[in-house]
């Protein structure tokens, strides 16, 4: 969304109140004024679009995840714990693009643990999952799947097909996180029998793709 520079004459008390609110929201004075005017005049801003997406995500995941308060309008983090030794925490962080083109944003997953064995298992699962997702998306003619597996972390771009409404984008992201988390927990719960459980998980992922490509 294009922006231009304009001069406004405002009362000092108004600017003080705007600055205080902008600080609390983790945004700038100009951005907050832009949001206030846009809402008053019924214009849709990137912040409003992202907020609506995250509200939809929160509605879908709130019963199973802890939602972390985030100061940036483009970020949302949810947490859950593995039913494993010491109950390590897994964070799912979504960062949306202000002006989405090829991708809606990025999902980053990381596990909080010092266990080398647990990190190795985490890497093994996401290597499997990345190959699965890339394969199924390629069959649908989507070859721009992009992911990265790091030290106890996984990041992938959320594909923008241009066919989802704002509400549907929120639903797609929320359902994807739920499906991914279920697969992670199934993997860690019974690693020795994962080859038995894998076809069921793949079926669930295929069902998700029939509704949303993300």
Short key terms for the protein model shown above:
single chain; 214 residues; alpha+beta; Arc Repressor Mutant; 2 domains; six-stranded antiparallel beta sheet; 6 strands; 50% helix; 18% strand; elongated
Major β-sheet strand ordering? 1-2-3-4-6-5
Structural class: alpha+beta
Report the β-strand fraction as a percent range: 15-25%
Summed over residues and divided by their number, the pLDDT gives a mean of: 89
- By DSSP, the count of extended strands is 6
Given as residue ranges, the uncertain stretches (5+ residues, pLDDT < 50) are: none
* Major sheet description: 6 strands, antiparallel
The helix-strand sequence is HHHEEEEHEEHH
Q: Which bin fits the share of residues in helices? A: 40-55%
Short description:
The protein is an alpha+beta fold and 214 residues long.
Q: What do you see in this structure?
A:
The chain is an alpha+beta fold and 214 residues long. Helix content is 50%, strand content 18%. It has helices at 12-25, 29-40, 46-61, 116-139, 166-189, 194-211, and strands at residues 66-68, 75-81, 89-96, 103-112, 147-150, 153-159. A six-stranded antiparallel beta sheet has the order 1-2-3-4-6-5, with helices on one face. A hairpin with a 6-residue loop joins strand 1 and strand 2. The longest helix has 24 residues, at 116-139. It is elongated and about 70 Å long. The two termini are 23 Å apart.
């Amino acid at each position: 969304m294009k922006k231009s520079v304009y001069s406004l004459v405002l009362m000092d008390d108004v600017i003080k109140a705007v600055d205080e609110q902008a600080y609390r929201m983790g945004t700038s004075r100009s951005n907050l004024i832009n949001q206030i005017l846009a809402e008053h005049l019924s214009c849709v801003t990137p912040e409003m679009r992202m907020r609506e997406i995250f509200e939809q995500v929160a509605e879908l995941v709130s019963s199973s995840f802890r939602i972390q308060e985030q100061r940036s309008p483009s970020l949302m983090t949810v947490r859950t714990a593995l039913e494993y030794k010491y109950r390590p925490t897994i964070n799912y962080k979504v960062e949306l693009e202000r002006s989405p083109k090829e991708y809606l944003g990025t999902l980053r997953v990381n596990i909080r643990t010092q266990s080398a064995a647990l990190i190795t298992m985490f890497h093994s699962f996401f290597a499997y999952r990345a190959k699965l997702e890339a394969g199924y998306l390629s069959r649908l003619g989507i070859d721009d799947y992009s992911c990265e597996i790091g030290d106890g972390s996984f990041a992938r771009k959320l594909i923008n097909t241009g066919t989802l409404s704002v509400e549907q984008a929120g639903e797609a992201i929320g359902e994807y996180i739920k499906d991914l988390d279920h697969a992670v927990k199934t993997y860690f719960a019974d690693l020795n029998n994962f080859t038995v459980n894998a076809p069921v998980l793949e079926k669930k992922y295929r069902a998700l793709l029939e509704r949303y490509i993300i």
